[in-house]
Amino acid sequence: MAVGIFDSGLGGLTVLDAAQKRLPDVDFLYYGDNAHAPYGVRDAENIYQLTKSAIEDMWDKGCDLVILACNTASAAALRRMQEGGLPQGKRVLGVFVPLIEALTERQWGDNSPPREVEVKHVALFATPATVASRAFQRELAFRAIGVDVEAQACGGVVDAIEDGDMILAEALVRSHVDALKRKMPHPQAAILGCTHYPLMEQTFQAALGPDVKVFSQGSLVADSLADYLTRHPDMNGSGAGGFYTTGNPGRVSDRATQFLRREITFQAA
Hints:
- Helix 2 packs across helix 3 (71-84).
- This protein has helices spanning 13-22, 44-60, 71-84, 96-104, 128-133, 135-141, 157-162, 166-183, 201-208, 217-231, 249-260, and strands spanning 3-7, 28-32, 65-68, 91-93, 115-116, 121-126, 144-145, 148-153, 189-192, 213-215, 242-245, 267-268.
- The chain is globular.
- The chain is an alpha/beta fold.
- Strands 4-3-1-2-11-12 form a six-stranded parallel β-sheet, sandwiched between helices. The chain has a four-stranded parallel β-sheet with strand order 8-6-9-10, sandwiched between helices. Strands 5-7 form a two-stranded parallel ribbon.
- The two termini are 16 Å apart.
């Protein structure tokens, strides 16, 4: 058994990298649905079906716990999968949880009524599908009041990153930040609501300015996972990990190696 990390493409490698550094004794199985990436331009039903199929494959490969390191999948599929009932002994967790914990300074298990928090104006940068779902705003509203969230759909950024065109990705990020600022001139915090975006964190920060606190997911998810495994040691990975893709293993391996700057070898899912 290994802890599974799922993403529609390569963005989840930012979460994997942070998780491996935080939990060096845990085996991880990374699964990228590169054949169908990006998810952010698909409709909710399609995203749900693709995510469900991939997660079931990961369960078959020995993962009892799967992290949806894909905000789009978390927004469109997680709640539906959980409400539909998971097989005994299987768990699926999303990546909104650690962000909201950090933003509201309260633990996920804290079921007290929503309260006011220090940050009042939040910029959310995410894929079109995540923005359309309003899942982040819904989950935030359970825990905080008086927070104004302005969402910006960042079309094209994921495609540029997956294609390795970082010059285009940087230009797109600056354009999306400019568009956000026209709607919310003075955000206090910014959520990078896609696991690809940490690769562009410096560009987001530079465009937003030094007074805006940027929340990125890698380390937050890794810390949350470490806490979860401490409380649920039976879900701890022990056994074969590895890298799987529904896409071309050679091409995906090359891109992943560029992403993490270490040799990564994918095999066909």
